[in-house]
Amino acid sequence: xxxxxxxxxxxxxxxxxxxxxxxxxxxxxxxxxxxxxxxxxxxxxxxxxxxxxxxxxxxxxxxxxxxxxxxxxxxxxxxxxxxxxxxxxxxxxxxxxxxxxxxxxxxxxxxxxxxxxxxxxxxxxxxxxxxxxxxxxxxxxxxxxxxxxxxxxxxxxxxxxxxxxxxxxxxxxxxxxxxxxxxxxxxxxxxxxxxxxxxxxxxxxxxxxxxxxxxxxxxxxxxxxxxxxxxxxxxxxxxxxxxxxxxxxxxxxxxxxx
Length: 258
What we know:
Layout: H1 4-24, H2 33-38, E1 48-53, H3 59-75, E2 82-87, H4 98-103, E3 111-116, H5 119-132, E4 137-141, H6 151-164, E5 167-172, E6 184-191, E7 205-213, E8 221-227, E9 232-234, E10 237-238, E11 241-242, E12 246-249, E13 255-257
Parallel strand pairs: 1-5, 1-6, 2-3, 2-4, 4-5
Antiparallel strand pairs: 6-7, 7-8, 8-9, 8-12, 10-11, 12-13
InterPro entries: ImuA (IPR017026), P-loop_NTPase (IPR027417)
Region (Disordered): 235-258
Protein name: Protein ImuA
């Protein structure tokens, strides 16, 4: 049997190693102080995160939220490109538009778009991209049922993300959550934005519900606004005043401020 001093030394070594790994891949803060505090610092940088549309019409919002989280990861990281992997059939929902990305504060040159024939090709390309590294984050767009994205496929992506220190974001439109090893899983809906000066369209606003979290923080409701100039999320502004950002469902199905 190990002596007490040897056991303590081993435990100290294990703790030091865990701290070193954590410091190498610090969480990605969303930018809202209250939201980041609730999430324990932000999203796991070397983790797998899923974004499900609350309703079919919210599919663009789920995709946008996943993309903006990838942008946030890049803004707080080493500035490597973003990988966006999508099935060719997703063209029917529209193609990424350079000026539109720029309007969100995204440099189109920072995004590498792979237009792939089917879901299996998306999963293979995602795994290969993680294996070789060189990117800040990988966004996998998976509309519809996507039966090939099962527990095994998610485990492969999560392990590769942890090994390479890359964030993996999966956007699911018109789909129901399925078992996976995702570090976090979100339900996303679009929310009304406040008009800017001269009645110009406001910043994108999202209603989010954290439906799974490996840190045990499920059930958090957030309303976040994207600030394109700072490439960061914040509590929505209403007449220049920060609106409540975190709450829960009341008995009528609405929201209450925390």
